[in-house]
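Example record

The entry below shows one chain as it appears in the dataset: sequence first, then structure tokens.
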Amino acid sequence: MTASSSDRRAFLSLMGLGTLGIGLSACGRQADAAERFPVAMSDAAWRQKLGPAAYNVLRHDGTERPYSIPLNDAHRSGIFACKGCAQPVFSSKTKFESGTGWPSFWAPLPRAGETRSDRSLMLERVEVHCSRCGGHLGHVFDDGPKPTGKRYCMNGVAMTFRAA
């Protein structure tokens, strides 16, 4: 890892800590009501199904504290799925240690995620959402490993893991 990529990851981790306050206060925006997804529920049903932390991340674009979720250290073979609808979104084959404190992958499973622009922190990032329920999973950056060069930096609280 070069000094500049190390500095960038440290900056991104600090940015994540800053967004924690925003996310925990539920100031994040809810999934656009105009969007339609195959799995849809009322806000009350999502809240009951997910619990406070996953609800905040998946339904209000929140962020968990880095290094706070056991899925960051999950190294067994298996599938990571959206906690909102159980759609498989990442294979453990694409997981790598990014040093950011969030589970990171270099590619999602086919058609598992959708992306859109996020300008919530006065800088442009790319959000990753589940294509089945619209739940916010995390962000994708252009500083990942080969073969894609992408780093899908996901919130572990937004996913479940099923060992293969």
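Notes for this example: Helices lie at 3-24, 43-50, 52-60. The two ends are 31 Å apart (CA to CA).
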